[in-house]
Amino acid sequence: MTFDYWTLGFQAVNVLVLIWLLHRFFWKPVAAMIAARQATVATLLDEAKAKQAEAEAALAKIAATKAGLAAERDAMLATARKDAQAARETLLAEARAEAEALHATAKAARVRAAETLKANAIDEAQGLALTIAGQLAARLDGPATDAAFLRWLVEGLAALSDTERTALAGVELELVSAADQDSPVQDRIAAAITNALGTPAKLTFRTEPALIAGHELHAPHFSLRNSWRADLDRIAAALGEKGDLSDAA
Amino acid sequence: MDSPLETFPLFMVGPESFAVPIMASVVVTWAIMAVLVLGAALLTRRLTMVPSRAQATAELLVGTVDQQIRDVTGAAPAPYRAFVGTLFLFILIANWSSLIPGVTPPTATMETPAALAAIVFLSIIFFGIRGGGVGGFLRGFALPNPVMIPLNMLESITRSISMFVRLFGNVMSGVFVIAIVGSLAALLVPIPLMVLDLLTGAVQAYIFAVLSMVFITSAVEKGKPQTAPETKES
């Protein structure tokens, strides 16, 4: 067995030198790199945490904003709904008023048309009645008809009150006849009227073919209509009143 | 076959009257040193935040050594990293150098494990004095009581000797067995033994490094001022 102390010393020095060299070139730089990376990672983690906190804060802010937007949206919707309801009611009221106006206008037009039709019908009826009455009167015995109308005139005067008859005394009366009256007839008429009034009458005679048949007595404040024309007018008036009553019903 | 306990100089340096023998183990050690230092220099020349595969491997090695130191001592690894880590790397590479044909591992000769054990012995004293001062380091021998001083001093020597003998014995025996088997059946038969020798080499490197750390930590802890144990008041 041999043990070389030189070799022991060489190996001891070699190992010590190797420890120093590896400390210088391996352990120290690698450990420093690991520490630097750990520090970097720690810094990055801290920054990431800070960023995360910022992001969470921003997220919370956005959530709050969204909530505010939702509330604002609801409020706007409610306002819009309210406005729409009001506009709808306004439109409905306007439409209703317009419809009522149209209805009233149409009703008035309908009434006017009905009245016009009725008036036209009455006019036509009157015309027809006048035609018929004229034709009838032409076929009747003229003196007999005149006598009948004169009798009805006298009866009308007799039906007046005494006050009315007294008021007619001395007043100039106009006797309107449907046909020309000759003097004897005029005298007989004047006598009959004087007899009916009880006082002499101041008569003037006038011919009006529109009366068809009969005699009418007129004064400034008195009128006694006794002719077919008057009868037709009364009938027309009665028809008009009846039509008005029908419309009212 | 030469005796594994016998070593022969590879060449001599110096004047003939004072010639210094250079053993093969020294040359192999220089080669291992050259490989380790050059490799480390190349590896750490361009360290980046985003590591390459080689840098990641180096960082893994450093991290593992640090973690082992923390697990064994509970102390910060920085003061011991270079010492313990270099011991582990050197012994591992030296043990595994037996795989190169014609190379005898430096740890298979007595001088190299003896030198490593001597360095550990001295480093225990160095770290013990640095941790607790000369007084603290010497007080550590009187624990648990002064009667133990001779035994503790003897133990501090014998444990270093045991480290030397353990490393030398395991590596030398592995090399010797492989050499014997290889002389009998040179082809393929020694391979399982070489694989076993790889495992033995790694284990011995780990054991040597961890025991060094344990002894150093023990010396440092013993040198620290003792705190009075807490007593519970009833």
Give the topology.
The complex is a heterodimer of chains A (249) and B (234).
Chain A: H1 5-139, H2 142-159, H3 162-168, E1 172-177, H4 183-197, E2 202-207, E3 215-219, E4 222-224, H5 228-248
Parallel strand pairs in A: 1-2
Antiparallel strand pairs in A: 1-3, 3-4
Helix pairs in contact in A: 1-5, 2-4
Chain B: E1 9-13, E2 20-23, H1 24-43, H2 53-73, H3 78-96, H4 111-139, H5 149-184, H6 190-223
Antiparallel strand pairs in B: 1-2
Keyword list:
heterodimer; A: 249 residues; alpha+beta; hypothetical protein PF0899 fold; 2 domains; four-stranded mixed sheet; 4 strands; rod-shaped; B: 234 residues; mainly alpha; two-stranded antiparallel sheet; 6 helices; 2 strands; 68% helix; globular
Task: Describe what is shown at a glance.
The complex is a heterodimer of chains A (249) and B (234). Chain A has helices at 5-139, 142-159, 162-168, 183-197, 228-248; strands spanning 172-177, 202-207, 215-219, 222-224.
Structural class determined from secondary elements of chain B: mainly alpha
Helical run tally of chain A: 5
Instruction: Name the poorly predicted regions of chain A.
Output: none
Q: Approximately how much beta-strand content do the residues of chain B carry?
A: under 5%
DSSP E strands of chain B, number: 2
Shape of chain B: globular
Largest interface: A-B, 33 and 49 residues
| Count of domain modules of chain A | 2
Number of helices of chain B: 6
Give the number of DSSP strands of chain A: 4
What overall form of chain A do the CA principal axes indicate?
rod-shaped
Note the gap between the termini of chain B: 74 Å
How do the helices and strands follow one another from N- to C-terminus of chain B? EEHHHHHH
Oligomeric state of shown chains: heterodimer
Strand order, sheet with most strands of chain B: 1-2
The biggest sheet of chain B amounts to: 2 strands, antiparallel
Show unreliable segments of chain B: none
